[in-house]
Structure formats: C-alpha cells, structure tokens
Amino acid sequence: VIDYINKNVDSKVNTYLKKFVEDRKGHDRRYGIDPTKIKEELGWYPETTFEVGIVKTIKWYLDNKEWMDNVTSGEYLNYYNEMYR
C-alpha cells in the first residue's frame, strides 16, 4: 500500500514505516474481497476501487491536517465530552 500511495499521492510516505514481519501461525495468505453476495441480495456494488479510494482517503487527510490535529490533540475528545454528556 505504501508503494502505491507513493506513486499516486504528492506527499511521500516514509518507507521506514514499511516493516516485514514473520507471518503468525495459521496466517491467512490473502484477504480477497468479493462483493458478489451483497450485489445479489441488495443490488449494491462498490463505486470506487480500492486503489482509487485509498488515494482519495490519503489526499483528504493531507488536505485536512487541521482536522487531524484537532482529533489527535485531544480537542475532539473535549468536544465530544461537552456535547454528549
């Protein structure tokens, strides 16, 4: 994912975040998302591919750093506690 983001987002993610670890015992080899059942039962289908969606999500966070600062600084928790006592 980091390599894909670095190819598609202006701001580069440091590759030091990429760390290979040994798989745990019984580790699943692949998590394949198959929307067939929800398509058949509810008529729903994904409008955005993972590749497009992850880039849009990362760009949103990069473009909204003030929001992120508020959430990570504890300010959001103060707001939440004040509004939902």
Please give a structural write-up.
The protein has helices at residues 2-8, 36-42, 50-63, 65-73, 75-83. The chain contains five helices and no strands. The chain has a domain at 31-85. The radius of gyration is 18 Å and the shape is extended. The N and C termini lie far apart (39 Å). It is mainly alpha-helical and 85 residues long. The longest helix has 14 residues, at 50-63. This is dTDP-glucose 4,6-dehydratase. Residues 16-56 form the NAD(P)-binding domain. InterPro entries: NAD(P)-bd_dom, NAD(P)-bd_dom_sf.
Show the helix and strand layout.
Elements: H1 2-8, H2 36-42, H3 50-63, H4 65-73, H5 75-83
Would you report the number of β strands?
0
Question: Main beta sheet: strand number and arrangement?
Answer: none
Which structural class do you get from the secondary structure elements? mainly alpha
| Assembly level | single chain
Please indicate the percent range of residues in DSSP E strands (runs of 2 or more): under 5%
Q: Runs with pLDDT <50, length 5+? A: none
Radius of gyration: 18 Å
Q: Mean pLDDT score, rounded?
A: 82
| Distance between the first and last residues' Cα | 39 Å
* Shape summary: extended
State the gist of this model.
It holds the Pfam family GDP_Man_Dehyd. InterPro entries: NAD(P)-bd_dom, NAD(P)-bd_dom_sf. The protein has 5 helices and no strands.
